[in-house]
Amino acid sequence: MSSEKGVLSGSFFMQGDVACAEGAITAGCRFFAGYPITPATEIAQRMAARMPQIGGTYIQMEDELGSMNAVLGASWAGVKAMTATSGPGFSLMMENLGLGIMTETPCVLVNVQRGGPSTGLPTLVAQGDMMQARWGAHGPYEIIALAPSSPQELFDLTIRAFNLSERFRTPVLIMTDAEVGHMTERVVIPPPEEVTIVPRRKPRIPPGDGYQPYVADDDLVPPMAVAGEGYRIHVTGLTHDERGYPATSDDSAQWKLIQRLVNKIRLYKDEIIEVEELYLEDAEVVVVSYGIAARAAMWPIELAHREGIKVGMLRLITVWPFAEEKIRALAERARAFVVPEINWGQIALEVERCAAGRVPVYLVPHPGGDIHKPEQVLAAIRRAVA
Amino acid sequence: MSEPTLRTEAKAVEPEAAPQERHPMDDLLREERLPHIWCSGCGIGTALTCFISALLKSGLDLDKVVVVSGIGCTGRVAGYVRLDSFHTTHGRAIPFATGLKLANPELKVVVFSGDGDLVTIGGNHFIHAARRNIDMTVICVNNFNYGMTGGQAGATTPVGAVTTTTPYGNYEHPFNLPYLAAASGAVYVARWTVLHVRRLERAISEALAKRGFSFVEVVSPCPTNFGRRHKQRTGLDTLRYYHERGIIRHGADPRSVDIELGGDIIEGKFVDIEKPTFSDCCAGIVQKAIAQ
Fold first, then answer.
1. Residue A172 near residue A161 (C-beta atoms within 8 A)
2. DSSP for residue B120
3. Taking CA A306 as the corner, what is the angle to CA A303 and CA A310, rounded to the nearest 5 degrees?
4. By CA distance, what is B69's nearest residue in A?
5. What stretches of chain A adopt beta strand conformation (E)?
6. CA angle at residue B139 from B138 to B140, to 5 degrees?
7. What b/e readout covers A278-300, taking b as 16+ CB neighbours within 10 angstroms?
8. Cβ pair B84:A49 closer than 8 A
9. What's residue B7's pLDDT?
10. Contact B156, B142 (CB under 8 A)
11. In A77, A115, A210, B83, which residue has its Cα 20 to 30 A from A383's Cα atom?
12. CB pairs < 8 Å spanning A and B
């Protein structure tokens, strides 16, 4: 039951969802709780097959409320944990995503997005949950969300998601989609010694010596004791003080806690934000996109180049926190932004916010169910330089 | 109105210059968080006392005991015990506890919460944890209403009961909790009122010692929001009712232990069976998985 089957180093022809599961296992995930839902089910299936082989736990919960909670519980037992879902399940997970943020619980939540609202298009692609990822749990907070464009990247970013979740003590979202999740491509799994794993930050004082669960280090992240280690911690979803005790009689603890929860991510966003830049050196038009929509935009960009249009691509690999400074800098020298996304305008609003009226932002919307046609994106690029 | 007199007397016998003696339960309470939020006459404190007594006698390694609560008056229990303790979201204590237990089987996981939390909003998790026979003890303080939010009706409110959301009397059929737990697969099911403290403590001891999903319903007064609307103005009035109408019937068919407003309360141990737990069953497939 050792880790001999833990990291399947090698080169594979692998589905995105499966690559996600293998990425989690490579990162050290040993607990998966989920509920079947298209197009994320293959992640659960892979975990059901793999967890018993490597000393991990797979449990199919009664719903996504339960899945998210079981993941939080497992993390507080000291085990790296993940769940995976799609739109309707993502909605159910919002409640306890909030608990994870409030209690600073490292874990990973994968959303293989499909068409919505409601049951929508269960088998077909969309990117309609990007703002839900940002704001879906109630209250003020920061979130980390990554958007892969290929099965290989889904593998790589799942490892990164676990590392970020431990580094910042917060749930991390992987916002992929039905196309990437169901796409089968070459996936290279490196040897374990080539994989960077961020360990959990543990208390530096022994039990009984005054450890307080929410006294943060200088970088605003508190070391984490878990259940069974003798620290006798108390953890609550209520606004709490550094002892972890409820402090709800006025707003003083709320000020302190929310500022820290927000700033532990906001002040370190350069460490989190990852983008890919293509042809941006002299670009007059900047296509800003992410996930499968960014990949689908590559061909229309090539077509535009043939027409002599100077167009480049800023691909958001980290979607949240948002690459504000990057967009602001580009707004100083480009003529326009074009934002293809498979929704009716979510990240485009963020681009517009950062462009701040300096240059126009052209949304290329799609209601979900397919990727953009090349001519739709091309038409927007042409309009941007007209 | 005899209660104020009693209190005065209790104060009068306070020792002068007494040595700082510690109550045997102090080590298991977060004293810095006291006084607690519970109303005078509430039964949750009694249920907690019985739980702590049972824990102290259990021989369990208390560093491995975890208490998980949801939301509501009883949900505050997690905040008062000096144990690893989690105060989760409304209805979700059981799935959170499931994650804890499965990720670290060395933990002794106890869910301590109220009826509205565990079987109304959290009912789905309750039946599924019982069905899977997850190794945990669930203590449910049932006061037949949502006390913290001002006394609304829930899934345990007896027919006819007046609450703030059933001003003309409750017309929904309530759950019978021992029957629900037993039918869902619990291996240990007992019910006691907070009047029957020694039996309640023993039931909690047995539940803690049981492998699998054990369930103890604690019938408890809520004078502030429930009792006073039903001619039980004080907690003592409700205890008197338990004394008069509590009937001990071990081994009773759980189907027969419905609680009607002002009616008999059948108490005792109803289920005590052996069954493999989720983890036992899971361990059985590991070799098969490794071989593939």
1. yes
2. I
3. 90
4. A236
5. 10-15, 31-34, 57-60, 81-85, 107-115, 121-125, 144-146, 171-177, 184-189, 234-236, 275-278, 285-289, 311-316, 318-320, 336-340, 361-364
6. 110
7. ebbeebbbbbbbbbbbbbbbbeb
8. no
9. 46
10. yes
11. A115
12. 151
pLDDT at position A1 is 35
- The pLDDT tens digits of the residues spanning A110-143 come to 999 999 999 999 999 999 999 999 999 999 999 9
Task: Pull the structure tokens for residue B223.
Answer: 């004078």
List of residues 6+ apart from B209 with CB closer than 8 A: B58
Mean pLDDT score of chain B: 94
Q: Set out the domains of chain A in order of their start, with CATH numbers.
A: 3-191 (3.40.50.970), 276-385 (3.40.50.920)
Q: Do B85 and A70 touch (CB under 8 A)?
A: no
Q: Render the burial of B143-163: b for 16+ CB within 10 Å, e for the rest.
A: bbbbbbeebbbbbbbbeebbb
Question: Average model confidence (pLDDT) for chain A?
Answer: 97
Among chain A residues, the shortest Cα distance to B127 is held by A62
ω before A39 within 30° of 0 (cis)? Answer: yes
CB atoms within 10 A of CB A267: 12
Select from 3.40.50.10160, 3.40.50.300, 3.30.1490.100, 3.40.50.970 the CATH code of B36-291: 3.40.50.970
The structure tokens listed for A290 are 């992410």
Q: Distance between CA atoms of B185 and B152, rounded to whole angstroms? A: 29
B244 CA to centre of own chain: 22
Q: To which residue do tokens 């009773």 refer?
A: B252
Half-sphere exposure of B39 (CA within 13 A, CB side): 20
Residues of A in contact with B288 (CB under 8 A): 52
Burial-class residue A204 by CB neighbours within 10 Å (0-12, 13-18, 19+).
exposed
Interface test with A, best of B85, B86, B285 (most A CBs within 10 A): B86
pLDDT of A97 = 98
B278 CB neighbour count, 10 Å cutoff: 21
| Partner-chain residue, chosen from A69, A231, A236, that has the shortest CB–CB distance to B99 | A69
pLDDT band at A5 (very low <50, low <70, confident <90, very high): confident
Chain B positions touching A76 (Cβ under 8 A) are: 86, 99-100
CA torsion B183→B184→B188→B189, rounded to 10°? -60
Q: What is the separation of C-alpha B118 from the centre of its chain, rounded to a whole number of angstroms? A: 9
- CB atoms < 10 A from the CB of B176, how many? 20
Find the largest Cα–Cα distance for chain B: 74
- List of chain A residues whose C-beta atoms are within 8 Å of the C-beta of residue B94: 66
Residues with Cβ < 8 Å from A273, sequence gap 6 or more?
A318, A321, A323, A326
- Asked if A77 lies within 8 A of B97 by C-beta distance, the reply is no
Q: How far apart are CA B232 and CA B222, in angstroms?
A: 9
Nearest CA in chain B to A32: B99
Can you give the residue ranges of every domain in chain B?
36-291
What Rg value do the Cα atoms of chain B yield, rounded? 19
Closest residue in A to B83 (Cα–Cα): A232
Residues whose CB falls within 8 Å of the CB of residue A363, separated by 6 or more in sequence, listed in order = A339, A341, A345, A348
Q: Which helix (H) or strand (E) holds B137?
A: strand B136-142
Type of residue numbered A141: Y
